[in-house]
Amino acid sequence: MMLLLGCLAGFGHSFATRGDAFELRSRERVAITGGSLMVAIERSGALETLAQLAWPDLKPRFRGLAWEGDTVDRQPRDVNFPRTADWLKRSGATMVFVGFGHAECLAGEQGLELFRAAYRAYLDEIQSVVPRVVMVIPPPFERREAPMPDLGARNADLGRYAMVIRELASARGLRVLDFLAAFERERPRESWTTDGRELSEAGHRWLARQWIREMGAVEWAERAAAVGFWDRDDVRRLRAAIVEKNQLWFRYWRPTNWAFLHGDRVEQPSSRDHRDPKVRWFPAEMEQYPPLIAEAEVRIESLAAQAAASRGTHE
Predict the structure, then answer these.
(1) How many helices (H) and strands (E) are present in the chain, helices listed first?
(2) Model pLDDT for residues 194-248, shown as the tens digit of each residue
(3) Which residues does residue 134 pair with via DSSP β-bridges, in sequence order?
(4) Does residue 111 contact residue 104 with C-beta atoms inside 8 Å?
(5) pTM of the full structure
(6) DSSP 3-state of 58
(7) Which residues of 265-280 are buried (b: 16+ CB within 10 A; e: fewer)?
(8) CB 304 within 8 A of CB 296
(9) What is the DSSP annotation of 139-208?
(10) Could you give all domains of the chain from N- to C-terminal order, each with its CATH number?
(11) Which end of the chain offers a freer environment for a tag, N or C, measured as fewer CB atoms within 10 Å?
């Protein structure tokens, strides 16, 4: 099984690194879509921390649009909730990282054709808004001892689904960020999951390093592997600011009560101003978030510039 996984990963690596790296542009708006893995990546802040350190002059913006439980064929939402493509427009995304396959591969070989067809349709919708798409292949599952389920036994299926992702990317001329290939090149030093699937802190750090390496920031990927890097005060402050910004964004795009905001309960008295029922207070209140997010990003820019400039004093 591991031999099969290694062969499949090796095939992906030759494609993923072919040609120039998929570099960030100035003030790039990077959206992250997909399922639980992509949600965890955005919430961790490790990836965005390294990206801000590697490209402080480019001032990239990251927007998480992934949703727990999403699969490539099913993204259930509340009534009137905008589709992912609509949120890509709203967020001004110019580059999208799409990550599916972890949950879908549990269906085994019989689910491959559904996965292929659904992913093709998903890409059609996404690329109608943002042509610059990078397809993400998840890292392998980690073996666990009983009583935990041994998801590591599903890595052969994950490899087959990875092949489908590579084929779809090749047909469209899209880049692939291949964590199966990265795993064969450089395995994590520690356990990379908490339960065989969900990334641990060590897993997030490893993944963030591999991500920016594939995007051309090899120097920073190596720096981030040094003992104590993530415990530096300037790195910790930057990451904390990023996590705070991402929480603000999360509250804005996924409000706690969508039904009262734009869903099927907008006519309820509690969604209206008690002094003037014609006035809806909730939409106006939600628009207080964008300025807060913008302020948070200015702070991130400052912290990233300071940390990047002072790197020599920490080596």
Answers:
(1) 13, 5
(2) 999 999 999 999 999 999 999 999 999 999 999 999 999 999 999 999 999 999 9
(3) 97, 175
(4) yes
(5) 0.90
(6) coil
(7) eeeeeebbeeeeeeeb
(8) no
(9) PPP----TTS--GGGGHHHHHHHHHHHHHHHHHHT-EEEEHHHHHHHS--SS--BSSSSSB-HHHHHHHH
(10) 2-230 (3.40.50.1110)
(11) C
pLDDT tens column, 63-108: 999 999 999 999 999 999 999 999 999 999 999 999 999 999 999 9
> What is the enclosing helix (H) or strand (E) of 286?
helix 281-286
CA–CA separation, 88 and 313 (whole Å): 39
217 three-state secondary structure:
coil
Backbone angles phi, psi at 272, to 5 degrees: -120, 155
Which residues are 135's β-sheet partners? Answer: 98, 176
Calculate the CA 238 to chain-centre distance. 18
Instruction: Measure the CA–CA gap between 14 and 160, rounded to whole angstroms.
Output: 17
Helix (H), strand (E) at residue 133: strand 133-137
Within 13 Å, how many C-alpha atoms sit on residue 109's CB side? 1
Residue 190 CB-density burial (10 A; 0-12 exposed, 13-18 middle, 19+ buried):
exposed
